[in-house]
Amino acid sequence: MKTIIFLVASLLLYVNSYTYSQSDYEELQNFKKQCSSIEESIKNAATPEECIAIRESITNLRNDYIGYKKIFDKALYPENYESTFEKIERALEYKNADLRQITTLTTRVGELETQVDQLNLQNETLLKQVEQLKIQVENGEATIADLKRAVARLSGSIKERDLLVRDLVDSLLVEFGKSSGNTQRDKKAIITKINKGNLFYNIKRTIEDNIQFTRVTQMTSDDFNQMKNQHQDLSKMWQLIGPKLSNVYLNKKDKKLEIAQIDSLLAKWNEQMNTEIWHNIFNQFVAKGVKLVPFNNAEQFVSNINGYIDDKINSIDNASEDDALNYYKVFADTVYHSTIEKDWIPILLESNQLSQNEKDQIDVKIEEWKNVVTSSPAYWGYILVALIIIAAAVVLIRSNKKSSSAIKIK
To answer: Most exposed among 19, 242, 361, 373, judged by the fewest C-beta atoms under 10 Å?
Structure first.
């Protein structure tokens, strides 16, 4: 009888123990499931407000299972109850920091968009004013000073808008840097920012305005140098971001077309600058009466200059010595060495529109012309006159000094 009672008691104890262990196991699995659900919510959170709701869920989960802490400490090894929550809360903090940064950037993008829109309208008005003033100057209805002031305002406004557009691109690069850009969620966030900042429109607009600026204004070598740097900066940024955008818009033909259009506009802008640089160099010669054949590239530039010099050397016997010397002085001293070589050649060399070898060919040809001209009596007569003028100036200066000294002695 005692044996039967012992067996029944043992059986009841085993059943109770099994039931208790089974219940703990189910609670542990439910706890893990809720932890995984919270971790997934953290990954998918899109606003700081969602993070606040997730934090409440973490607090509730901790309170709901605090009675199982000792059991879970053993069951979760090598983690424990507290380290599990620390891991989740750390992930939430990182996510919340990222979302706060995104919120700040989104606000900044909105501000930039407003400023860029205002400058777009301003630039459009200024471009029209410059074109109208050019016509008025030609008709004597406005002064060159009026035109220069309008051009200066337009140039400053375009540069300001360029900087804002670069800020927009920079903010997008930050977005790419924070994510791989491969998940649908990453792509959605980036597309939202692109649409918010009207990125494609504003990049195309700033390039088009710069192209138009080169057409409607007479730019100096410094202007072109600054614009070349602007083009280079924007091109470098676009080289970084363009391929990434192509990946984001992999299946959207309209956006892929806009990306290709920006590539094309950057090339057109560079081509337009190069054309205008050659045109302005040609005008430097025309302004001084040097009748060169027009040129649009380095090959034509070297060929036409060398052809002009050859023509002057070959016809030197048919011209008076004074005329022959004057042709050389105007070309070499007044235009080429003082303006072209000093202001424009460095831009051509830096932008790879002219090679050092091509420049050397021109220098050799000018030196050849100089040797021919300097062998003429007119040249030495010019040198003699120059020396007489210098000597007279020295005598005059000394005479003035002696007079001043005599007055002081008296």
So the answer is: 19
